[in-house]
Amino acid sequence: MTAEGTLADRLYEAALVPELWTETCERLAREVKSSTASIFTIDHQGTHRYVTTPNLAETFVRFAGSDLRFSNLRPERAMQRFPFSFARSTDILTADEYARDPIQRAFIEPAGMEWEAGWVFQEPTGHTVVITLMLAKGLDNFSDEQLARLNVLKPDIARAAYMSSRLAFNEARSMTETLSLLGLPAAVIGDNGRVIAMNPEIEVLSPRIRTGAEDRLVLEGAGADALLYDAIQRYKAQVVPTVQSLPMMSRHGAPALILHLLPIRRAARDIFSRSMAVVAVTEVGKVGPPDMRVLCGLFDLTPAEARVARGIAMAGRPEAIAASLGISLETARSHLKRIMSKTGTTRQAELVLLLSGLSAPTFGGGAVSRSPLKNPSDGLS
């Protein structure tokens, strides 16, 4: 098998297993005798997500958090070239631009690098994907032979990126489909509240819950919508996001609702997934214990954990729950600890509040038409 074939195989493996992207960058750098290799994506808001060889990791942390990233001329210039192919920075920037380039001065040179080559393309989502490689100070600039070797791999890089993005979108659809089977209205949202996928059950709640400009999830009532915005900002600021529950007051005779934002545990190196949280909707005021299917579907509880959660929701104490289920108190407390971890709660009172209303919802009692799941942007995640 050729070296190109081996690396191409690894690209497709990384598309399926995001944890492999860093190793794939290292192999790409070795393949063309480059000092570094990095892949980063840029969304519509200018957010950068990246994977890179370890020797450039700290530099990318600073770059992704700096406003100077908006001054980077390379992606736009590279998109203007035809045919689209790997090129040196010195080929796409004028001599004057290169001499004054803030990216070169603030990030590339302090990292001990001097030369850069890269390729830029767009996913079907409109997100920009940038592949960039650098050579250390003291080395010659990228040769035509090195660029030719990179261009051999170009189709595989593009297909792997598209595959990874498509899989991320299918995963979002699968989440909403699962909750749809439970009759639970649900949507998957991205970093800025943009809806990636939603099921028919949540569509029938319009206009109380709907999509607005740029496919952002919008709640009826300025107060509820402001709470959702604040919750999304908290999610983005948290290293490990926790479950958040937002109330929606009763309006025009419709029942009060609770929106549960459930974090999606995305791999840190999954740069092609934009899914941030599942939004699941439950109705306030239901009588009776939570529905077992809803507990398992929402929080990934085991059947044993779901039974303990039902007992907690009915204001039961661990001792009484253990006795009623025929398990030891230690086992009941162990289940409770895992339940609180999975639901993102820290106190039993918070857990009781979260679980309130989690019986199988009716939302007007009418059957929901099982139309295909909707993707508001008709694209990928």
Automatic annotation (TrEMBL):
It comes from the Bacteria. SUPFAM superfamilies: C-terminal effector domain of the bipartite response regulators (SSF46894). Residues 298-355 form the HTH luxR-type domain. It comes from Xaviernesmea oryzae. Keywords: DNA-binding. GO terms for biological process: regulation of DNA-templated transcription. The keyword Isomerase does not apply. The lineage of its organism: Bacteria, Pseudomonadati, Pseudomonadota, Alphaproteobacteria, Hyphomicrobiales. This is DNA-binding transcriptional regulator, CsgD family. InterPro entries: Sig_transdc_resp-reg_C-effctor (IPR016032), Tscrpt_reg_LuxR_C (IPR000792), WH-like_DNA-bd_sf (IPR036388). GO terms for molecular function: DNA binding. SMART domains: HTH_LUXR.
